[in-house]
């Protein structure tokens, strides 16, 4: 039991350190400012996400709950005024109609404003997230840690050359890419179902739900970088499974929004945090000549005995 206990203690300490490193990396929001100053397009897309999801979407929720609903409750009261008379309220049927009318007006506000805004935000944010990942990846690849500012012309030329290079792949590579994307969508769909099912388990369901959502959130964030770096799906999954503790820590701070707020508010908060979590990092797996996945940043991970330092 001695060697086994030492091994468990060592691995547990290693997992804890990686989890802390993931949390710390997720909270390094100053990188967003640094790389936004270097890339004008990155700053524009990030600002648009804040404007749509923060100011418009969350602002609409605040106006609804703080202004519209209280005003409707004042105009269409749902209870009798406080009177000293012991007689029962003689306006119960009218007050019931007021409650029904007030609820109908709130639902109309949801149907004609919140739900379309939610769908619009979901579609537009997905497009912007991809642009943010591209511009951020370009800023990191071409400027590293140097404090320089990108010219719009150079950034545009580089992005156009990247798109041209992506389009010039052969048919086999294109089919492989399509197959990997479909597999990735199916994988994340089944994983989302698993997240939902585990949330129904008594006592431990919430904890499992929180951890699985953290992994899913982290995978979504880094999948943009891995797509741009040309990393195949099997290497992504191998890398993700080998470094599960880091990705759990990376997703934990962002997923807290789901458990602290209502569903609509949590979506708005997550939509703001998601582009921040896509800030450029050096978290890209090193590859052996044989194609195997190694670790990064000088750490030694559980399933891989090799230690290397990988700079993107």
How much beta, percentage-wise?
under 5%
**Uncertain spans:** 82-86, 145-168, 286-312
Task: Give helix % range.
Answer: over 70%
Order of helices and strands: HHHHHHHHHH
Main beta-sheet annotation: none
SSE class: mainly alpha
Total helices: the number is 10
Compute the number of strand runs: 0
Overall body shape: globular
Radius of gyration: 25 Å
Mean pLDDT across all residues, rounded? Answer: 75
Report how far apart the termini are: 42 Å
Quickly list its features.
mainly alpha, globular, disordered C terminus, single chain, 10 helices, 312 residues
Describe this structure as you would to a colleague.
Pfam families: EI24. The chain crosses the membrane at residues 50-72, 111-129, 182-205, 244-274. It is found in: Membrane. Keywords: Membrane, Transmembrane, Transmembrane helix. InterPro entries: CysZ/EI24. Mean pLDDT is 75; it is low at 82-86, 145-168 and 286-312. The chain has a domain at 26-81 and 92-143 and 169-278. It is mainly α. The chain has helices at 2-26, 30-38, 40-75, 92-143, 152-167, 171-198, 205-229, 233-242, 244-260, 263-277. It starts with a helix and ends in a 35-residue tail after the last helix. 75% of the residues lie in helices and 0% in strands.
Concise description?
The protein has a domain at 26-81 and 92-143 and 169-278. Mean pLDDT is 75; it is low at 82-86, 145-168 and 286-312. The radius of gyration is 25 Å and the shape is globular.
Write the layout of secondary structure elements.
Blueprint: H1 2-26, H2 30-38, H3 40-75, H4 92-143, H5 152-167, H6 171-198, H7 205-229, H8 233-242, H9 244-260, H10 263-277
